[in-house]
Design goal:
The strands form two sheets. Strands 9-8-10-11-7-12-13-14-15 form a nine-stranded mixed sheet, with helices on both faces. Strands 3-2-1-6-5-4 form a six-stranded antiparallel sheet. It has 485 residues and is α/β, with parallel strands linked by helices. The longest helix is centred in the first third of the chain and has 28 residues. It is 34% helix and 20% strand. It contains 14 helices and 15 strands. The structure holds adenosine-5'-triphosphate (ATP) and magnesium ion. The site of magnesium ion has 3 residues, from helix 9.
Length: 485
């Protein structure tokens, strides 16, 4: 059976072992009438639908024909449109102009299209001229979180935590490269064989990364994290089951009483979203400085200074790292510093800031658990070339960081805060921690949805006194573990 992600003309898997008989595909008719109960210990994989080859072929040919026509038309448009006048034209004027040129060219080519085809074509052409071609529909689709392009013929999107293959394609690698070039040149960057990868921010704020051949082997790779105008807030996250109201009350106390918080998690697990939501608990009177590689955070407070680092240019000049921003931020009288993601040498300054009066600072790191997060911090310090005895390093971390919040994307696509862990000090050479809340998984539904619940672990918060002193007297019931029914 073929994967639905395989292109119809992709080479088939070779037989497993040479000399073994080629496998015969089991059509329903050829399948044995009574199926033996499977002895395999493995769970059956979800059925994948094989497309009807006839229909798929016809559809493919239709799409190829349309793509060829589009290319011709696009050339004609570039020859005929007055690009300088485009800037001042209204959308309707531009659409009319494009349609007029398209109709004329189609007539010259002797091609007749049906209404639907004409409409799709005119919309696609509009996007080609004004926007990012095939990507434009996906950028406009609010249900899409991520867009992932693997060469011109394969575009995946992430919706509700799940990856899906779309039927949108680029005409060829040249077309894809042209769109990439359009994006990066708009931000004054370049991408080519000698600079094969680039980070940029799209005009709408989406985070964009591209890598082109020859480093990208099968065609350019593009990853876009869509910018959400309405970031998920604490209430939304509670409603979506990312964490409970009790956990939210605890986090509110933690942020308001200026604990230093690290949000840890895997890629796309919701770190930035969590950080952004947590920041809503910061008092409006405080001066907050944010430092990011790509500005994604949207803080609601009035007093926010935003910084975005910059890679060096082609000559290797003009780079401003997160560490540079952080050092400078310390001279800008911040009450709190928020670093979008700590991934390198800036860790030193971040920990120092947390230790020296900028408590209440926050950042995210890439790690799979609180313990793992601490090891990541240690590694980053070591990689930054700071020679420090391990005990000194750990004591620096344990006094800087108060709380590690773990964000996870689970296998069913749901995103949850799977653990909240407090750092309580040092025992010998080891950093001591206690988990206060966790997500307890109990099973899986037949359609592979995770069954589980959040629970307190029953430990008393190390910061209870502090919370109380600051006026956040959390009811003890928050910390009582859930009793299984
Ligand atoms: N609890 C949630 N429920 C539904 N969607 C969520 C949730 N948390 C985050 N998302 C969505 O998931 C996507 C990824 O989130 P986010 O950017 O916060 O992840 P990240 O861990 O910072 O990713 P990266 O490692 O790429 O920086 C976003 O589109 C966001 O809106
Ligand atoms: Mg992020």
């Amino acid at each position: 059976m073929f994967s639905k992600y395989k292109k119809p003309n992709a080479p088939k898997n070779p037989p497993a072992a040479s000399g073994s008989k080629p496998k015969v595909a089991l059509s329903p008719a050829a399948a044995p009438k009574v199926e033996e109960p499977s002895k395999s210990l493995m769970k059956p994989r979800p059925e994948k639908r094989a497309a009807d080859p006839g229909v798929a072929d016809k559809e493919k040919r239709r799409k190829e024909r349309l793509a060829d026509i589009k290319l011709e038309l696009h050339k004609a448009l570039l020859d005929n449109l007055n690009l300088a006048a485009l800037e001042s034209a209204s959308e309707q004027e531009l659409r009319n102009e494009i349609n007029a040129i398209a109709n004329e060219t189609l007539e010259d080519m002797g091609i007749v299209l049906n209404r639907d085809e004409r409409q799709t074509l005119s919309q696609d052409l509009f996007f080609e001229v004004t926007g990012l071609g095939p990507l434009e529909t996906l950028l406009k689709d609010d249900t899409v979180n991520d867009i992932l392009v693997n060469g011109p013929q394969q575009i995946f999107v992430e919706r509700a935590g799940r990856l899906e293959l779309t039927d949108i394609t680029f005409k060829d690698e040249k077309h894809l490269l042209r769109i990439i070039d359009k994006i990066v040149s708009a931000v004054g960057r370049r991408v080519d064989e000698s600079n094969p990868y680039v980070d940029a921010r799209l005009a709408d704020g989406s985070r964009f990364n591209a890598m082109v051949p020859p480093i990208a082997v099968d065609g350019s790779l593009v990853s876009i994290r869509k910018f959400k105008k309405d970031k998920l807030g604490i209430e939304d996250l509670v409603k979506f089951g990312a964490f409970t109201e009790e956990m939210a009350a605890y986090l509110q106390a933690a942020v308001a009483t200026r604990l230093n918080v690290i949000v840890s998690g895997g890629t796309g697990s919701g770190k930035t979203t969590t950080l952004n939501a947590l920041s809503s608990f910061i008092d409006d009177a405080e001066r907050i400085l944010t430092i990011e590689d790509t500005a994604e955070l949207q803080l609601q407070q009035t007093h926010v200074g935003r910084m975005e680092s910059r890679p060096p240019n082609v000559e290797g000049k003009g780079g401003v790292s997160q560490r540079d921003c952080l050092k400078n931020a310390l001279r800008m009288r911040p009450d709190r510093i928020i670093v979008g993601e700590t991934r390198g040498e800036e860790v030193i300054d971040m920990l120092q800031a947390m230790n020296t009066g900028h408590d209440g600072s926050m950042t995210t790191i890439h790690a799979n658990s609180a313990r793992d997060g601490v090891s990541r911090l240690e590694n980053m310090i070591a990689m930054a070339g700071i020679e420090m005895p391990i005990k000194a390093m750990r004591s620096q971390i344990s006094s800087a960081v108060n709380l590690i919040v773990q964000a996870s994307r689970l296998q069913d696509g749901s995103r949850r805060m799977t653990s909240i862990t407090e750092i309580t000090g040092m025992e010998g050479e080891v950093i001591s921690m206690q988990e206060v809340f966790r997500y307890q998984r109990v099973g899986l539904t037949p359609d592979n949805k995770i069954i589980g619940h959040f629970t307190a672990t029953g430990v008393r918060s190390h910061f209870s006194e502090r919370f109380k002193l600051w006026g956040y007297d959390l009811p003890p019931a928050i910390f009582e573990p859930m009793v299984a029914e």
